[in-house]
Design a protein that fits this description.
Layout lengths: L1 E5 L3 H13 L3 E5 L10 H6 L7 E4 L9 E4 L1 H12 L7 H31 L5 H21 L12 H10 L13 H11 L2 H6 L14 H8 L6
Parallel strand pairs: 1-2
Antiparallel strand pairs: 1-3, 3-4
Helix pairs in contact: 1-3, 1-6, 4-5, 4-6, 5-7
Length: 229
Protein backbone atom coordinates (compact mmCIF):
# COMPACT_ATOMS: atom_id res chain seq x y z
CA UNK A 1 0.00 0.00 0.00
CA UNK A 2 1.22 3.48 -0.91
CA UNK A 3 0.01 6.54 0.98
CA UNK A 4 -0.33 9.51 -1.38
CA UNK A 5 -0.18 12.78 0.55
CA UNK A 6 -2.15 14.86 -1.89
CA UNK A 7 -4.04 17.96 -2.88
CA UNK A 8 -5.59 18.45 -6.32
CA UNK A 9 -2.88 20.63 -7.85
CA UNK A 10 -1.09 19.78 -11.12
CA UNK A 11 1.84 18.33 -9.19
CA UNK A 12 -0.45 16.29 -7.00
CA UNK A 13 -2.36 15.03 -10.01
CA UNK A 14 0.84 13.79 -11.65
CA UNK A 15 1.20 11.17 -8.95
CA UNK A 16 -2.45 10.22 -8.88
CA UNK A 17 -2.29 9.71 -12.65
CA UNK A 18 0.78 7.51 -12.33
CA UNK A 19 -0.78 5.41 -9.60
CA UNK A 20 -3.93 4.92 -11.66
CA UNK A 21 -1.90 3.97 -14.74
CA UNK A 22 0.34 1.50 -12.92
CA UNK A 23 -2.43 -0.10 -10.89
CA UNK A 24 -0.38 0.09 -7.70
CA UNK A 25 -2.44 -0.08 -4.53
CA UNK A 26 -2.75 3.35 -2.91
CA UNK A 27 -4.82 5.53 -0.67
CA UNK A 28 -5.12 9.30 -0.63
CA UNK A 29 -4.12 11.21 2.48
CA UNK A 30 -5.48 14.75 1.95
CA UNK A 31 -3.22 17.69 2.73
CA UNK A 32 -5.27 20.88 2.60
CA UNK A 33 -2.70 23.43 1.49
CA UNK A 34 -5.16 26.31 1.88
CA UNK A 35 -5.38 25.56 5.59
CA UNK A 36 -1.64 25.13 6.02
CA UNK A 37 -1.64 21.39 6.64
CA UNK A 38 1.60 21.15 4.63
CA UNK A 39 3.36 22.73 7.62
CA UNK A 40 2.23 20.11 10.12
CA UNK A 41 5.19 18.33 11.80
CA UNK A 42 4.07 14.86 10.67
CA UNK A 43 3.94 15.97 7.05
CA UNK A 44 7.29 17.74 7.25
CA UNK A 45 8.88 14.46 8.31
CA UNK A 46 8.16 13.07 4.85
CA UNK A 47 8.24 16.30 2.84
CA UNK A 48 10.75 18.72 4.38
CA UNK A 49 10.14 21.26 1.60
CA UNK A 50 6.53 21.60 2.87
CA UNK A 51 5.06 20.86 -0.55
CA UNK A 52 2.75 18.19 -1.90
CA UNK A 53 2.88 15.57 -3.26
CA UNK A 54 4.70 13.03 -1.16
CA UNK A 55 4.34 9.27 -0.81
CA UNK A 56 5.01 6.65 1.82
CA UNK A 57 5.40 3.15 0.41
CA UNK A 58 4.72 0.52 3.06
CA UNK A 59 6.02 -2.24 0.77
CA UNK A 60 9.02 -0.49 -0.81
CA UNK A 61 11.41 -1.63 -3.47
CA UNK A 62 14.02 -3.77 -1.75
CA UNK A 63 11.84 -4.37 1.30
CA UNK A 64 12.48 -3.00 4.76
CA UNK A 65 10.86 -0.10 6.59
CA UNK A 66 8.32 2.16 4.86
CA UNK A 67 9.96 4.52 2.37
CA UNK A 68 8.94 8.17 2.04
CA UNK A 69 9.67 10.23 -1.07
CA UNK A 70 8.94 13.86 -1.87
CA UNK A 71 9.30 15.83 -5.16
CA UNK A 72 7.02 14.77 -7.99
CA UNK A 73 9.78 13.87 -10.45
CA UNK A 74 11.46 11.53 -7.98
CA UNK A 75 8.12 9.96 -7.10
CA UNK A 76 7.29 9.35 -10.75
CA UNK A 77 10.63 7.65 -11.32
CA UNK A 78 10.10 5.47 -8.24
CA UNK A 79 6.60 4.42 -9.28
CA UNK A 80 7.78 3.60 -12.80
CA UNK A 81 10.63 1.48 -11.47
CA UNK A 82 8.43 -0.28 -8.92
CA UNK A 83 5.77 -1.13 -11.48
CA UNK A 84 8.15 -1.86 -14.36
CA UNK A 85 6.11 0.43 -16.61
CA UNK A 86 6.15 3.97 -18.04
CA UNK A 87 9.96 4.17 -18.21
CA UNK A 88 11.98 2.23 -20.81
CA UNK A 89 14.72 -0.06 -19.63
CA UNK A 90 17.06 0.57 -22.55
CA UNK A 91 19.40 3.55 -21.90
CA UNK A 92 18.43 5.59 -24.97
CA UNK A 93 14.72 5.29 -24.33
CA UNK A 94 15.15 5.84 -20.61
CA UNK A 95 17.07 9.08 -20.98
CA UNK A 96 14.73 10.30 -23.69
CA UNK A 97 11.93 10.06 -21.14
CA UNK A 98 13.99 11.49 -18.29
CA UNK A 99 15.14 14.57 -20.18
CA UNK A 100 11.50 15.46 -20.90
CA UNK A 101 10.51 14.70 -17.33
CA UNK A 102 13.15 17.17 -16.14
CA UNK A 103 12.04 19.65 -18.82
CA UNK A 104 8.62 19.64 -17.22
CA UNK A 105 9.90 19.77 -13.64
CA UNK A 106 12.41 22.53 -14.30
CA UNK A 107 10.64 24.49 -17.03
CA UNK A 108 6.99 24.02 -17.87
CA UNK A 109 5.79 23.54 -14.29
CA UNK A 110 7.52 26.53 -12.71
CA UNK A 111 6.79 28.87 -15.62
CA UNK A 112 3.14 27.84 -15.90
CA UNK A 113 2.84 28.15 -12.14
CA UNK A 114 4.12 31.73 -12.27
CA UNK A 115 1.80 32.53 -15.17
CA UNK A 116 -1.11 31.19 -13.18
CA UNK A 117 -0.06 33.16 -10.12
CA UNK A 118 0.14 36.51 -11.89
CA UNK A 119 -2.89 35.92 -14.12
CA UNK A 120 -5.20 34.36 -11.49
CA UNK A 121 -4.03 34.64 -7.89
CA UNK A 122 -2.11 37.92 -7.60
CA UNK A 123 -4.03 40.42 -5.45
CA UNK A 124 -3.47 43.12 -8.09
CA UNK A 125 -2.41 43.06 -11.77
CA UNK A 126 1.33 43.08 -12.43
CA UNK A 127 1.59 43.61 -16.22
CA UNK A 128 5.30 42.76 -16.42
CA UNK A 129 4.81 39.47 -14.57
CA UNK A 130 1.77 38.54 -16.65
CA UNK A 131 3.57 39.25 -19.91
CA UNK A 132 6.88 37.65 -18.89
CA UNK A 133 5.49 34.32 -17.78
CA UNK A 134 2.70 34.04 -20.34
CA UNK A 135 5.26 34.50 -23.13
CA UNK A 136 7.56 31.89 -21.65
CA UNK A 137 4.75 29.38 -21.33
CA UNK A 138 3.85 30.05 -24.97
CA UNK A 139 7.46 29.33 -25.93
CA UNK A 140 7.43 26.07 -23.97
CA UNK A 141 4.16 25.04 -25.61
CA UNK A 142 5.88 25.62 -28.94
CA UNK A 143 8.77 23.37 -27.91
CA UNK A 144 6.35 20.61 -26.95
CA UNK A 145 4.25 21.07 -30.08
CA UNK A 146 7.36 20.59 -32.23
CA UNK A 147 8.36 17.48 -30.27
CA UNK A 148 4.91 15.97 -30.86
CA UNK A 149 4.86 16.69 -34.58
CA UNK A 150 6.04 13.18 -35.44
CA UNK A 151 5.39 11.32 -32.18
CA UNK A 152 2.22 10.03 -30.60
CA UNK A 153 3.63 10.73 -27.16
CA UNK A 154 6.42 12.94 -25.87
CA UNK A 155 9.18 10.33 -25.76
CA UNK A 156 7.93 7.49 -27.91
CA UNK A 157 5.60 5.27 -25.88
CA UNK A 158 3.34 6.69 -23.19
CA UNK A 159 5.53 7.40 -20.18
CA UNK A 160 6.06 9.41 -17.02
CA UNK A 161 7.06 12.31 -19.29
CA UNK A 162 3.47 12.51 -20.55
CA UNK A 163 2.05 11.99 -17.06
CA UNK A 164 4.19 14.82 -15.66
CA UNK A 165 3.22 17.21 -18.43
CA UNK A 166 -0.50 16.65 -18.89
CA UNK A 167 -1.73 18.19 -15.59
CA UNK A 168 0.17 21.38 -16.41
CA UNK A 169 -1.58 21.63 -19.79
CA UNK A 170 -5.06 21.11 -18.33
CA UNK A 171 -5.26 24.74 -17.06
CA UNK A 172 -4.04 26.18 -20.39
CA UNK A 173 -6.76 28.83 -20.56
CA UNK A 174 -6.00 30.50 -17.21
CA UNK A 175 -2.33 30.29 -18.19
CA UNK A 176 -3.12 32.41 -21.25
CA UNK A 177 -2.71 29.65 -23.85
CA UNK A 178 -4.82 28.62 -26.84
CA UNK A 179 -4.30 25.02 -27.94
CA UNK A 180 -5.56 25.93 -31.41
CA UNK A 181 -2.15 27.54 -31.91
CA UNK A 182 -0.42 24.23 -31.13
CA UNK A 183 -2.19 21.50 -33.15
CA UNK A 184 0.18 18.65 -32.29
CA UNK A 185 -0.03 19.46 -28.61
CA UNK A 186 -3.81 19.68 -28.84
CA UNK A 187 -4.02 16.25 -30.50
CA UNK A 188 -1.83 14.76 -27.74
CA UNK A 189 -3.81 16.52 -25.00
CA UNK A 190 -7.16 15.31 -26.27
CA UNK A 191 -5.91 11.73 -26.65
CA UNK A 192 -4.55 11.58 -23.12
CA UNK A 193 -7.76 13.00 -21.74
CA UNK A 194 -9.56 9.92 -23.05
CA UNK A 195 -7.42 7.45 -21.10
CA UNK A 196 -9.39 5.64 -18.42
CA UNK A 197 -6.72 6.26 -15.78
CA UNK A 198 -6.87 9.98 -16.50
CA UNK A 199 -10.65 10.02 -16.21
CA UNK A 200 -10.42 8.28 -12.84
CA UNK A 201 -7.77 10.68 -11.56
CA UNK A 202 -9.81 13.73 -12.56
CA UNK A 203 -13.23 12.48 -11.48
CA UNK A 204 -13.30 14.76 -8.44
CA UNK A 205 -10.95 17.48 -9.69
CA UNK A 206 -11.87 20.53 -11.78
CA UNK A 207 -10.48 20.75 -15.31
CA UNK A 208 -9.37 24.33 -14.78
CA UNK A 209 -9.25 26.80 -11.96
CA UNK A 210 -10.87 30.17 -11.51
CA UNK A 211 -9.83 33.13 -9.45
CA UNK A 212 -10.47 31.97 -5.88
CA UNK A 213 -12.20 34.06 -3.25
CA UNK A 214 -9.24 33.92 -0.89
CA UNK A 215 -9.03 35.32 2.56
CA UNK A 216 -5.90 37.21 3.56
CA UNK A 217 -4.92 34.27 5.76
CA UNK A 218 -5.28 31.75 2.92
CA UNK A 219 -3.19 33.97 0.66
CA UNK A 220 -0.53 34.25 3.36
CA UNK A 221 -0.41 30.47 3.80
CA UNK A 222 -0.18 29.70 0.08
CA UNK A 223 2.15 32.45 -1.03
CA UNK A 224 3.81 34.09 1.91
CA UNK A 225 4.71 31.55 4.57
CA UNK A 226 8.46 30.88 4.96
CA UNK A 227 9.83 27.39 5.34
CA UNK A 228 9.31 25.86 8.74
CA UNK A 229 12.30 26.05 11.10
Amino acid sequence: MIDLHYWGTPNGLKIRLALEETGLDYRIVPVNIGKGEQFEPDFLKISPNNRIPAIVDHDPIGGGEPLSIFESGAILMYLAEKSGTLLPKDPRGRYDVLQWLFWQVGGLGPMAGQAGHFRVYAPEPVPYGIDRYTREVTRLYGVLDKQLAHREFIAGDYSIADIATYPWIVPHEPHGQDLANHPNLRRWFEAIGQREAVKRAYVDNPSAYKRPDMTDEERRVLFGTPAAK
